[in-house]
Amino acid sequence: MPRSTRKSTSGASTPPSSLSSSPPSRPLFPAISLRSSSPSSSQSMGMGKETPNSNVLSARTSLLNVLTRPHHSSPSTTIVSSENNSSDEDTIYSDQSTISGSSYASSIINGSIADKQHLSSEDIARVYENYLEKPFVYTKSTIKHSEFGHCNNPNWRWTSQWNPDEPIHPEEEPHPPYFTLLTTYISYILLIVIGHMRDFFGKRFRPAEYAHLMPQNGYAALNSDFDSFYTRRLKQRLEDCFARPVTGVAGRTIVCYDRSSTDENKTFTLTGTTTRALNVSSYNYLGFASSTGGCADAVEACIKKYGVSGAGPRHDASTLDLHVQTENLVARFVGQESAMVVSMGYATNSTTIPALVGKGCLVISDEFNHASIRFGVRLSGASLRSFKHNDVNDLERILRDVISQGQPRTHRPWKKILLIVEGLYSMEGSLVNLPVLIELKKKYKFYLYVDEAHSIGAMGPNGRGVCDYFGVDPREVDLLMGTFTKSFGAAGGYIAGSKAIMDRLRLRSHATCYAESISPVLLTQIISSMGSIMGVAPPLATPAEDDKSDTLSIVSRPQAYGPAPSHILPSWMKLPLNLLNGTEGRERLRRLAFNSRYLASGLRKLGFIVYGHRDSPIIPLLIYNPGKMPWFSQLMLDRLGPDKTPVVVVVVAYPATPLITSRVRFCLSASHTKNDIDLILRACDEVGDLLGMKYGKQTMNVEEVISSAEELVASSKFD
Amino acid sequence: MSAVHSHPSSMVATAQPASTEIPAPLIPLLSSLTALIYTIENLFNRIPGSPIIVRYIKSSYQDDPWRSVLELFLLAFAIRTVLKGRTRGEGEGKSFIKLTEKEIDELVDEFSPLPLADEPTPADSLTLETVPTIYGPNGIKVKTSPNGKTLLNLATPNWCGFVENDKMKEVAIETLKHYGVGTCGPSGFYGTIDIHQKAEADIASFLGTEASIIYSQAFALVSSAIPAFAKRGDIIVADRGVNFGIHKGLQISRSNIKWYAHGDMKDLERVLQNVERDRKRKGGKLTKKFIVAEGIFENDGMILDLPKVIELKKKYKYRLILDECQSFGMMGAHGRGITEHFGVPASEVDMILGSMANGLSTGGGFCAGSQVVCQHQRINSSASVFSASLPAMLATCASQAIDILKSQPQLITSLQANIQVFRTQLAKLEPFISTTSASSSGSAENSLMPPPNGVPNKEALISIPSHANSGLIHIFLLNPPDNLEDEEIILQQIVDEVQNTSNVLITRSRRLRSQEIFEPEPSLKISISGYMSKKDVEAAGKGLRNAIIKVCGSEY
């Protein structure tokens, strides 16, 4: 049966056995009852009990393939993986033994979930009672459960890697029913008409409230009422969904201050209470946002040694040894020759693009590129063309056009053409079609700049971003940019490329010359988290020729993505073993991949319209009607369902998205457990039914989805 | 239109010939035509509101047939416009040349772009090679090589010694245990932590403004806060000497920018009058008008004559955007900046932009002003909306640093004393030896320019335009060589000399040559800290003086 086959791939060889009767191969392994949930699911799905369904089998085989592929692609990594597995098991046991002591763990492990195919609402309520508050389990990793959930079932893992059988983009975007489109447009028209009426009468009857929109004592209005119309009349109605004050770590859970408004969301007053909610809003992809654990200890040591300040600009004696070490590590992490760090992610784009291109150069940009890219291009003075989101045909058309026509009017050829795309789009959850772009790049000789703000750390079997995910040699891309805010739990950004380009950037970038350097505290967080994703090689094991060779190819990829040589890391930094050997990092990558794929597939099965790639940790769920946005946000927080566990979500609307496609955006994290994802699915199901948001065709009910999680993840079908 | 001729009541399924004069072979054709017309009409009548359209067309045709023709033409035009597509792209412009696919392929093959990185010039290499790397913690005593000698750091802004403040380290560790490091989100999406709100309130109450908003980088703050308010068509009057970040903000704003001569209040007034005259002549809508200037100018350390600017701004109805990235934490009795230095209430200034990285030695920046000003930026300022919020510990440390500044004015006193000591050492090389150097430091009148009423100094080598109270001191060569590169080389020699002989780390100002709007002259950049001992500062000043004499004396 599948379970045992999969078990054998993860290192321990157990003979195949049937599930219900099989005693756990290791009797002291309590998680076994959790695992049996998957086969029982296949029964509940109406598949044959005795005859293994061929679909499931093929799915399993593909799962097997994917799981093992990165491990066997090169002999050097096989060794690493086998080491990983052994220590994996160790951590599992220790975690288990601690976890089973808590009432939370026993309530889940001892069975109610596993035994029954469908949970009654009482069961759910019981299991999820004080779900977020109670289990403050301290394990060997010494990270609080509320910041990073423990999830030991090795089946709930996945490897984020491109499967050429799966399309990078769906054949066609899912469409909502015309009724929804119509009501959405009508809603906006109504809102605009009512808003203008309120403005019209308000200005005449209550001028005091409109003072800042009208000229006063000879001063023009600070905000024109036309520019601020959207903010005042549309966004203000949803104001409660945004900028909710929080406290503590934005980890697996987050503590929100409760607030209320008595003046139509103009001001909020805190009620004095707080709510701990499940957090699917923060960009904490690998769960490194935490106040405890190995990284936090390293940061504490850093504060004692270095203080917190980055002080002045990099060129004015504020370049620390830590900056150089971080840059070397980042370059190695992304597989480039050299890298540069900047104290703010936004500024990484806005201050380096002007250093790369100028007048007479052309920037071709995806229409959904981030504001910082647009800001940078505007500063640079280069011409700008944008192409339809992820549409390579449109891109090629534009390329042929601009190269053949040259600069406008003069027809002189462009000095440089720079294509700027994002690896993973933060509002769409869609991936860039990197393999095709590389092809186009060879033909049309443009330079490629990939903004990996969201994909770095979150995509790829080694967490090295989209190049890793697609198996593309990172040096095929001229510039790889990314941020440390997301996966690494720090702040700031980097840009990496060849040494010649980086040297130019160090001279020409606005940031190195005039902006403050990045704080040593953040650098420590970056080094420790990045180092633990890579693993740190013991000094002797570093291949001697590795330092000299700059030529890379796809064949040598595993080497390029190898561990961090220990001499790059600061000597005072002491990391715990599970971070040093990379097991923790690998676990986190695989948990994130599972969570992402599970939720994205699950929501589609429930009949929601979901954008983006299935491996993307950003999952946008379409709402359309603007009136449903505050309701969705509110109902996720004040849950109606039996588990009563609050969830905080991000709702996004125009101008961040096109006008009609308002959406809620889930950002998953390795810190979420499968139970957390189940909870989100149940919550979405209940709110979706209530608000009529299942615009697509529902093919499974929520309990079916939950019980067939592993099949959904392993299946290579998009829907 | 068919509806005009037939009446709905006569609608039948089969057609009846209207006249017997029609030749027989045509009858089946006509009957099927009529049937078709009826069907269409039937369908048309089912559309809600169709009788209104019919009535409209009928009456309009009867009243004025030409109008119907015109309307038909307009309809055709509208359909054509819709079908044409929204973007007026390639293929439309005058200079577009239609090429065959083969020609395009050839052009694509021929296309050879410039390399992404151009060859570095010798000056570039010099700049890059001379960036010092500090081994170990930054502070007033640093090492620039792992086992090198300890240098006195006059290169890093550290006005009150907060870089090494132990209390702030404690606060940082405390914060780490509650909040972790990063916030993992922009302030709009669960990235607004309670300590951010506290830091904002602390800054606002420290300065005496209604509110403030925190950004995660001071440079991005300056270049993003200005375009959040100033839009196309607005008027910005700016000092020619403003820093690079402001230049970028002005560039993004696309406003109408007028420059006035650096530090020249008469010229400012002239520009304001010109704008006023223009506006009166042209008439038109009242637009937003801003004056943009710096408290202590980053490019030369000069001070803004704030009382005069406030007077002019009120007279001509401008809003003042004041960049205090250098002066915050350095000027005034408690480090509140030049508003405190001049005794002007901060609320008189519409927007104060400050740097927490320079002034408080943490990170990020803030904009202080009225509630409306700050609230507007939370939604409309690009760098605030689209960027992750400031890491928690940088915000708590900023709050802590403000507490220290409030309660320990001696930090600023000590800073001012050190500046005095340092400037006295260099005064012997300046063009005018002020006769009343000790007493003139506080007054605003003669501080904008080098004191004109001193004794001319024949042995002068340098000029220091920086204000006597400014911790940021720029030293310009008095008789520079003709080209900038040579001047940079001389300055670098001074930097190396003072490092080798006196163990003092200073830097020359690094510029983005060819990206600046007004190329600033090369200069040496000194940052004095109040945390240094008087003896060290005096020795450093002496060392620098000797180095300048040694390098420049041999040149001339």
Description:
The complex is a heterodimer of chains A (719) and B (556). With 719 residues, chain A is of the alpha/beta class. Chain A has a domain at 311-541 and 558-575: Aspartate Aminotransferase, domain 2 (3-Layer(aba) Sandwich). Chain A has 27 helices and 17 strands. In chain A, the strands form four sheets. A seven-stranded mixed beta sheet of chain A has the order 5-11-10-9-8-6-7, sandwiched between helices. Chain A has a four-stranded mixed beta sheet with strand order 1-2-3-15. Chain A has a three-stranded antiparallel beta sheet with strand order 14-17-16, with helices on one face. In chain A, helix 13 runs parallel beside helix 14 (371-380) and helix 23 packs parallel to helix 25 (674-691). The longest helix of chain A is centred in the first third of the chain and has 28 residues, at 178-205. Chain A is globular, with a radius of gyration of 26 Å. Chain B has 556 residues and is of the alpha/beta class. Chain B folds into three domains: 1-48, no CATH class; 122-153 and 410-555, Aspartate Aminotransferase, domain 1, CATH 3.90.1150.10; 165-407, Aspartate Aminotransferase, domain 2, CATH 3.40.640.10. In chain B, 46% of the residues lie in helices and 12% in strands. Chain B has helices at residues 2-5, 27-46, 50-63, 65-84, 101-110, 122-129, 166-179, 187-191, 194-207, 218-229, 244-253, 265-282, 306-316, 338-342, 356-359, 371-380, 382-385, 392-407, 410-427, 484-502, 534-555; strands at residues 133-134, 141-143, 150-153, 211-215, 235-239, 256-260, 289-294, 319-323, 351-355, 365-369, 432-433, 455-456, 462-463, 472-477, 504-505, 507-508, 524-527. In chain B, the strands form four sheets. Chain B has a seven-stranded mixed beta sheet with strand order 4-10-9-8-7-5-6, sandwiched between helices. In chain B, strands 13-14-17-16 form a four-stranded antiparallel beta sheet. The longest helix of chain B is centred in the last third of the chain and has 22 residues, at 534-555. Classes of the chains: A alpha/beta (719), B alpha/beta (556). The interface between A and B is large, with 133 and 120 residues. Strand 4 (319-320) of chain A pairs parallel with strand 1 of chain B.
